[in-house]
Amino acid sequence: MRGRNLLAVLRRSAILSGAGKKTLRGVYASTSGVYGDCKGALVAETHRCNPQTERAARRRDAERRWRSAGRERGWRIGLLRIPGIYDARARSPRARLERGLPVLARQDDVVTNHIHADDLARICLLALERATPGRSYNVCDDSALHMGDYFDLAADLYGLTKPPRVARAQAQAAGLSSMMLSFMRESRRLDNTRMKAELGVTLHYPRVEQGLLSDPG
């Protein structure tokens, strides 16, 4: 809804629609959730989108609208498909570990992808200048991990207890949020080749452990 409102405002803007005016450049922050569950497969941007949550479906709809508006108006809009964001502050896994929340048992676990917030900010700036209009980019680091392994790694680095493992059937009764449960239903490995080749990205934190070690806490 917010994306539609913004598009409506931009379309009505006399400044942006006037002849001879500077071309609008922008980046739409979408989600890798537009691919849905891919059973752990490697997923490039050409993979069929199959959003399986209302949240991801809204993002996919917004992608189409921004791409259409870009073609119609000549706007240079890049589409970034972003997975789990983490950093040393608000998005650190530390708080979740301290609460002792469980992760899936190994046989039920899913592959997740991540990007450090500082790397994401730099990629957004690069995309403003270098993204091909209407083109989508997977934005992630080089360390696709099973979700449980991600939290185990964080626990080891922080000196905390590793989270308990539960079967998928028990996860809903384990105090997990509906959003976390939705993440536990989807598994994929994002291919970031296009991001590196076309946007010229050099990751400061190519692996999760490097980003987690930047946490001063």
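^ that was protein a. below is b, sequence first then the tokens
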Amino acid sequence: MNTALLSALREIETDKSIPFETVKGVLEESLLAAYQGREGAVEEARVVLDEETGDLRVMKEGEDITPHDFTRIAAQVMRQTFYQRLTEVHNEQLLEEYGERMGDVVTGIVQQAHRRMTLVDLGRVEAILPASEQVPNERYENGQRLKVYLLEIREGGRGPSLTVSRRHEGL
């Protein structure tokens, strides 16, 4: 029984706000990729996580074909794939969530205030308040609550990048 694995998946579900089924699917995909990279892998195989016991099995047409050393080898190979795919899913969710909210006024908390830009925490993501979108002579302090206008979202290399405004007429 591998309840530690199930606990870890539930923790990811809570921390990243990603549904358990999605986290489970990403794990199964990652392990399948690790399995298929092995010599002698069966093409039609699939990886199944038992949600009650936490056991992982490689299955083909209902038959358990899990290699005896699968868990140790797979863990090494799949770790990077799993976290990379989880990050992609998380970023997709943020793009969808904030993409739908473009043009809305939201409240955030100033994380870092600089001359050229200010970082504003919106809860699940940080946004950039560039100097060009700040009100002249308005000063921001760390921890200060701010109402900002969601101006733009861009997909970046490190995840979605949100730009907010304090000058927009929608505010």
